[in-house]
Amino acid sequence: MLRLKNKIILRQIINFRLVFILLLVASVIVYACSKGGGGETTPTNPCAGVTVTVSGTIINPSSAGASDGSISATAAGSNGLTFNLNGGAFQASGNFTNLAAGSYTINAKNGSGCTGSVSFTLTASNPCTGVTITVSATTINNTPCQATNNGSITITTNGGSGAFTYSLNGGPFQSSNIFSALNGAVYTVTAKDANGCTGTANITVSNNTAGPLFTAVQALIQGNCAITGCHGDVQSPLFTNQCNIVSNNLLIKARAVDGSPSFMPPTGQLPASEKLKITNWINAGGQFNN
């Protein structure tokens, strides 16, 4: 009887232990499942459903090379947003100044690290848009056969702003609006204002016509030398080139008027009326315009 009673007690003890073990295993399984099977819970994404939208307005730089542009950015979709420019440090304000022409990206970030971004392009303003500069000029004719050319151009402008500089035929710009020592020719003049806006014009400097006294002497020399063959060559530059006649004015008087060292042309002296033409020209200055 005692032995049977002991068996019953032993069986109850075993059953109790089995129930305890099963409960323990079940608790472990529930705990593991609550940890995702890896011992840790999956963190919640703080940016899930959060969309940060960035927008802004720009002011372009005033000119090429200037750094006075700016971007004013704002953002929506979250609170406590800060801003940075091209990956720089974040700041509370979305205003960025002293910017040159170029591309910029602004990022907005909230306290949880949720971000949004937008890109802007700043373009240097063209100060010459709509600006018309009209160039005109007054001229002084050149007198040929001088030691230096004496034609000139004085430029005037209309339009533009600020101080002007001036260029002749694509040369360097100068502050003076006068170009001197010019030969007779067509010149391209350019005026540039303080903003770099330009206007151009083609200006003609004429050569003065020959004076009446010179014209008479030139005809005298050409006529006599063509007939008598001065220097043995009717095409001699002495009487085919106007400036050679001017540069040899005293020699012409010495030979044709004074006979020093001998008279020209070789066929005989010129008539007194012809000599007087040479003398009158020399006395007036012996130049192209006399």
The poorly predicted ranges are none
Oligomer: single chain
Strand segment tally: 12
Could you say how many structural domains there are in total? 3
Word description of this protein:
It contains six helices and twelve strands. The chain starts with a helix and ends in a 6-residue tail after the last helix. The chain is rod-shaped, with a radius of gyration of 51 Å. It has helices spanning 2-34, 212-228, 237-240, 242-247, 249-256, 272-284, and strands at 53-59, 69-76, 82-85, 95-99, 102-109, 115-122, 134-140, 151-158, 165-168, 178-182, 185-192, 198-205. The protein folds into three domains: 53-122, Immunoglobulin-like; 134-205, Immunoglobulin-like, CATH 2.60.40; 212-284, no CATH class. The strands form four sheets. It has a three-stranded antiparallel sheet, with no helix packed on it. A three-stranded antiparallel sheet has the order 3-5-6, with no helix packed on it. Strands 7-8-10 form a three-stranded antiparallel sheet, with no helix packed on it. The mean pLDDT is 87. It is α+β, with helices and mostly antiparallel strands.
Describe the structure concisely.
The protein has helices spanning 2-34, 212-228, 237-240, 242-247, 249-256, 272-284; strands at 53-59, 69-76, 82-85, 95-99, 102-109, 115-122, 134-140, 151-158, 165-168, 178-182, 185-192, 198-205. The N and C termini lie far apart (168 Å). The chain has three domains: 53-122, Sandwich (Immunoglobulin-like), CATH 2.60.40; 134-205, Immunoglobulin-like; 212-284, no CATH class.
